[in-house]
């Protein structure tokens, strides 16, 4: 009996020793006070060597005690040049007094210069980092990633981390950009059915004049980042999308082209457009538009070329009109619906031919519909959808039901 009690005490003592040993190292080296959390990472070409990278880390200065010095943008920025992202992290660990941690990294910013050379190596390296969450958004910026990070702080959003988390959500009610995570890019690089996009960012510079190609039917919506007329405290903006072929940046979409992409992909809840007034071609009518139901898409292969049909169904409500217009009349509303259909059909058609003929990139995942025509995966691979997308021709239909707002409805 005494022997059993002795064995039990020894067993309990061993358990205590094991637990102390197992958790003491974790506590001492991985507690929040011993970690430095990166909230943003920027990737540029190194100034000293075009074969190297310049990595910008934006680090939070908030400690476990909550001592941030300020409730506002409590961050510091460090820059290092290295041959790879992993080497940059290792060098940064040797420089700062804490271990760099990517668990709270909200956004990865990559310059166009880097993206135009291909970013598979960088994305694979980041996705292989167990700390980084696959939900971190990716921005391709028209300025340097370092400049984007330095100009992202604003008095409107007191915490820059909140800005990084919230700004992609604006796509749900504007359609001017959309969320793109590092997980999305990783999955798309290995796809045989579609190509990738990423958020297009840049510096807010209202002094830049857009060229003639950005002042046509799109009006205020025919802009990309760096071209908006906005003057504000924050120095960055996010309009449009960066378009990839494989892992290589091949072009960009304007705000109106991005909206067309989101309409087809059923990724926008509502948006505002301005269409010509049927009664006054010199004026436009602002309308709030929302999807009535999901777009109907079909893909056929005709003489070896993709024949793509897209049918869009929308509801619209009048926001702003000419004071002399009368859209309480049902006939006038029908005319306005037809004008809206023509306007949106032209925009979507131009957008799709741009993706197929100019960019040669299927970012609307039409390959998901085309693959049904092939009986085996080998046939699908031999056809080469992503190579044949440039031969596509399109049939676009838009059905818009326009209603007067409540203030304009006749009693």
Helix-strand layout with pairing:
Layout: H1 2-30, E1 35-45, E2 53-60, E3 75-82, H2 85-95, E4 99-101, E5 107-111, H3 112-115, H4 120-127, E6 137-141, H5 145-150, H6 160-166, H7 171-174, H8 182-189, E7 197-203, E8 236-245, E9 248-253, H9 255-265, E10 271-277, E11 280-302, E12 305-320, H10 330-358, H11 367-370, H12 377-383, H13 385-388, E13 393-403
Parallel strand pairs: 1-4, 1-5, 5-6, 6-7, 12-13
Antiparallel strand pairs: 1-2, 2-3, 7-8, 8-9, 10-11, 11-12
Helix pairs in contact: 4-8, 9-10
H-E order: HEEEHEEHHEHHHHEEEHEEEHHHHE
Low-confidence stretches: 25-29, 63-72, 208-218, 406-411
Number of strands: 13
What's the overall geometry? Answer: globular
Q: In percent, how much strand structure appears in the residues?
A: 25-35%
C-alpha end-to-end distance: 95 Å
Structural class by SSE content: alpha/beta
Helix content: 25-40%
Enumerate how many helices there are, as a single number.
Answer: 13
- Count of discrete structural domains: 2
Biggest pleated-sheet summary: 9 strands, mixed
The whole-angstrom Rg is 26 Å
Give average pLDDT, whole number.
82
Task: Please describe what this structure looks like.
The chain has 411 residues and is α/β, with parallel strands linked by helices. The protein is 32% helix and 29% strand. The strands form 2 sheets. Strands 1, 2, 3, 4, 5, 6, 7, 8 and 9 form a 9-stranded mixed sheet that branches. It has a 4-stranded mixed sheet with strand order 10-11-12-13. Helix 4 crosses helix 8 and helix 9 (255-265) packs across helix 10 (330-358).
